[in-house]
Amino acid sequence: MSAGVAGRLGALALWLAAGWAAPWSTPARAQAPALSSVAQDAATAPTAAAPATTPARSFALDLREELHRVAVSARNLSGVETRGSIPVVTYRPPGNGPFPLAVINHGRALAERRAQVGQQRYEVLARYLVTKGFAVFVPTRLGYGETFGQGDPEESGPCNDLRFEPMSLAASDQILATVDYARSLPWVDASRWVALGQSVGGMATVALAWRNPPGLVAAINFSGGAGGNPDLRPGQPCSPQRLEYLLSAKAESSRVPMLWVYWANDRYWGAEWPERWAKAWNEGGGKAAFHQLPPVGTDGHAGLSRAMDGWLPLVEDYLAGFGFNRPGRPERPPPSGFASLDDLSRLPLGPVGRSYYERRFLTARPPRAFAIGPGGAVGWASGDFAIGRALGFCQAPRGVTCSLYAVDDDVVWPQP
Questions:
Q1: Residue 245 or residue 1, greater confidence
Q2: CATH 3.40.50.1820 domain locations along the chain
Q3: Domain 31-320: what homologous superfamily?
Q4: How many Cβ atoms sit within 10 Å of the Cβ of residue 248?
Q5: Residue 17: its pLDDT value, please?
Q6: How far is CA 342 from CA 69, 278, 364, 389, 410, in A?
Q7: Which H or E element spans position 75?
Q8: pLDDT average, residue stretch 135-141
Q9: Are 23 and 60 in contact (CB under 8 A)?
Q10: Mean of pLDDT over the chain
């Protein structure tokens, strides 16, 4: 069992014992404040939107997570228009704002899995961005999940003749509609916004850069591209030269310095093509700092979510260059001397929490973290971004503020 799975199962066990569902789960763990629902005709108002009534699913209450719906339209490679209402998950820091905006853009599932795609949340990434002070919007675009079957504006043609530009425009049109909606909210400052995307979402983020919409100041491409199939053609994407040509042709119109992050064992694109795409972009007149990080797991295409400890320093430095200087990564407190790691008698929890700490946290391998909060709230994680995930597991279900009790082999809980 992987450390990430073990951490999730551990958190689930305690929350169920306490009568709460796990923080990452789809079933409801807590109801977010209900949002008013205003009828909107997507066929007549493609850029208008309204908050959606809260469904019965889990919400990160500490991040003030809400679900909105935005009416969008997009055209496929044949010019056929699809219109619909897409779900947009939002997160924001405490206070009234307005907060600078960050938009996270998802990838493209294989055809047989597209109907099963749920509302995209990127909760761990959003937690990092909210800590930096951003309001975070995560749209799930047309053709995925609940809008599957209504049209597929991102279809780009056969493998030997992919047309990347229509797909990129269709995806980025919906992102821009989401940004337009965000501008209407009093707690969002969209005069300076950041785009981030993974896979096809990374490609859409590159398209945003060449389109230069108002207010876009930074754009981060994680494992961006299109036309890959890790099962049938590992490391050999469809029509990669066409994408290389498109990036070279479009780069000159971009004014946004970008950050591109890939992993050497990406089974969608391989190691060579991302380097060639970045070279084409830069030689065409664009500005992108390209980083290909060491292999992670069995497929580096998932490095955004599985290797945060590797890319966080790059993103922190990049965003600081635009004035977003607030640290987004929770600091590791020094050892406090409050207790030895295995002294359960000093742990400020009841019998259930102490047993959980002993059975789950103490048996996990570092990196690991254990957090506690009011009312017996706890959360733990091991592996990548352990401190951030442990705090999130502790805080999200009740919207409380938690503190670290132990990190790795040290108790860091402050002396009374």
A1: 245
A2: 31-320
A3: Alpha/Beta hydrolase fold, catalytic domain (3.40.50.1820)
A4: 18
A5: 29
A6: 48, 50, 13, 22, 10
A7: strand 66-75
A8: 95
A9: yes
A10: 86
